[in-house]
Every structure is written in C-alpha cells, then in structure tokens.
From TrEMBL:
This is Sigma-70 family RNA polymerase sigma factor. It comes from Cutibacterium acnes subsp. acnes. It comes from the Bacteria. Gene3D superfamilies: Winged helix-like DNA-binding domain superfamily/Winged helix DNA-binding domain.
Amino acid sequence: MLAWVILADQVDSRRHNDEVPHLLTALTSPGLLVSPTGYTVGTPQWVLPPERTSGDEVQALTTDPASLIHAVWTSGSGPWRIGVSHGEVDTPLPDSTRAARGPAYISAREAIDECRRRRAAIHVFADGTDGMRRFSQVAQVVVDLARRLRPAARDVAKFYDLSMSSDETARALGISTSAVSQRLTRARWEYLVGIRQLAVDLAQEAQWPSP
C-alpha cells in the first residue's frame, strides 16, 4: 500500500526533558485538520498510530494528507527534526508502526539522516517528481512558520485551532480580548491556516501525480 511515513526525532534529547509523551498526546488528540477548501476540528487519522520507536523518536503512518500536515505543524513547533516520505509499505500491516516495513520507512529514515547532515528542521524524501518537490518546499515553510511563532502567540493559535473565539481564548488564558489580538490577530491565524491548506493540497497532488 502507498502511505505517508512521518518520523520525528527530538533534538538534543540528552540535554533536555523527554518530549515524546507530549508529542504523542498532541498527535492523537483533536486538532485543526485542514483541507484545500476549509478546515475542521477532528482527530487525526492514522493507519498505524504514533508510537515511540528508538528512545527519543516518534513514528506514524497515514494515508491522510490533513493528518500529515497536522503532524508536521505540531512537531514543527517543538524541538524536533522531521523526516517525511511517501511510498510503498509492506502488507499485511502489523499492529504497530515499529514493526512495519517497506520502502517508505527506509526513505523516512534517510530523510531524518539528511536533516542531521544539513541541520535542517524537516526533510521530505524526494522521489524526483515535480509534485513532491513542490510539497517539500511548502512543508519547509509550514515548519518555519510554526517555529517562528512566539510562545504567547502559539498559545493563542492552539485555542484558535480548536475553533475557540477570541473571548473564549481570552478566558482560557486568563487575559483580555485585546491581549489575545496583540498576541495573534485572527487575520494572521487565517494566514497560518492558509499555508497549511496549501501544504495539504500539494501533498494530495504529490501522492497521486497526474500521468
């Protein structure tokens, strides 16, 4: 079967707290799932759900571009290097992504290795197609935007992603509505959503290239 493999490796894990449990919770909890034409709050769709693999790594398998971009955005905002690939996965599938095999898993590992060599935040394994090249470029933008958000703005974005209003966000954070807007305006948040929508669109094109 064809699927996306995402592999997140915690940077400098020996010097910092273990962030794997937090990422696993975030990747399996309801969040913003975008499409090229809209967005909704839902639980990511995993063929094989995220798991800790070797110590400080998280790995998952999906056929859903919206869930893939949710994972890229979520891990991109934290201390992770991210490898992504799309390709064949051996069937029948095991119960755990740790036991899964196939070219897509090998490519995801190569993508992580490339991140280490380049000191990059994300690398998408290229299959030589224009579609995958375009997706790789926008995936880098998604991660860059996620990392550039200041912690205060990221807190607001998290609640906006759950479809909470400015008033609800203000109450949840214990701040004023005007302070919410100062941290992250709705217009800026909509721009961040739009970039993720573009990423989903290009992921769809990349996984099913036109003949």
